[in-house]
Amino acid sequence: MIDSHCHLADEVFAADLEAVVGRARDAGLERALTILAAGDDKEEAQANRLLSLWPDVRLAIGVHPHAAATFAAAPDEAAIRVRQQVTRMPAVRAVGEIGLDYHYDFAPPTVQQQVFRAQVSLARELDLPIVIHTREADEDTLRILSEEGIGTRPGRGRLRGVLHCFTGGPSLARAGLDLGLYISCSGIITFPKAAELRETVRGVPLDRVLIETDSPFLAPVPYRGKRNEPAYVARVAQTLGDMHGISADDVCRQTAANFHALFRP
Q: How far apart are CA 189 and CA 56, in angstroms?
């Protein structure tokens, strides 16, 4: 079992990181992909501490769309910052999370798009997958991915990735699958009011699904209202199994294989 997206370098885990890791291992997790904000020294230090506790953890580094405004004058600097951190952290296996978020007005859409493109180009150059955040920006996200060469583009490398914390409808799922992306399910699929999302996810082939917590956010039922953590990804696996009429163990085996295929850990 693998948590394909969590934020264990977040300061909310600083005080009890060892216990959180212990619970994850006790729950049967093989590894987790921890997301770092590019250029955040505190997160980098905590990630190094995490790796000393759990060497099988892998990392992703990127400039989140919420932070894109920092690079408004020079969008390419976002990719430079990510590259520098990737170079000094050998556990990195992806660029992310990156993408577009028009729900909040933290950066103009044009700036977000420029910063996103710069990092997508870097990922292609480094032959790393991308972890994609999209919120109320699906059309632009898919357009940029298509223009930047998702799939195989001769001479430019192969771009691959995952739509993380998927909450979209059937059209986004189909478009993502058509571009070769994986679809990652979070604890949201356990929420009572998420029937439409569950129906969409049920239509995604299991060999294209990942599971995640996005911890410390979005704790699944029955932990809603509490801090989320990687051990709770078991609830996502169980819900997926119930949806498909298979065991949680079968879900864990398949999604772990998918994780390995995408991130090559």
A: 27
Query: In terms of residue numbers, what domain contains 205?
Result: 2-263
Straight-line distance from the first to the last Cα atom of the chain, in angstroms, rounded to the nearest whole number: 14
β-bridge partners, 159? 150, 151
Nearest 10 degrees: Cα torsion 47, 213, 263, 67: -60
Q: How crowded is residue 48: how many other Cβ atoms within 10 Å of its Cβ?
A: 13
* Of 203, 164, 168, residue with least CA distance to 3: 164
Amino acid at 194: A
Compute the distance between CA of residue 141 and CA of residue 195 in angstroms, rounded to an integer.
Answer: 25
Picking from 179, 182, 67, 165, the residue whose alpha carbon sits closest to that of residue 119 is 67
Q: How far apart are CA 9 and CA 69, in angstroms?
A: 22
Report the pLDDT averaged over residues 95-117.
96
Question: Which residues are CB-contacts of 52 (< 8 A; sequence separation ≥ 6)?
Answer: none
SS3 at position 256: helix
**Tally of structural domains, the chain:** 1
Q: Is 80 helix (H, G, I), strand (E, B) or coil?
A: helix
Structure tokens at 48: 């190094």
Amino acid occupying residue 223: Y
Mean pLDDT for the stretch of residues 149-155: 55
Q: How many whole angstroms separate alpha carbon 8 and alpha carbon 195?
A: 29
Q: What is the CATH number of the domain that holds 55?
A: 3.20.20.140
pLDDT in tens, 53-83: 999 999 999 999 999 999 999 999 999 999 9
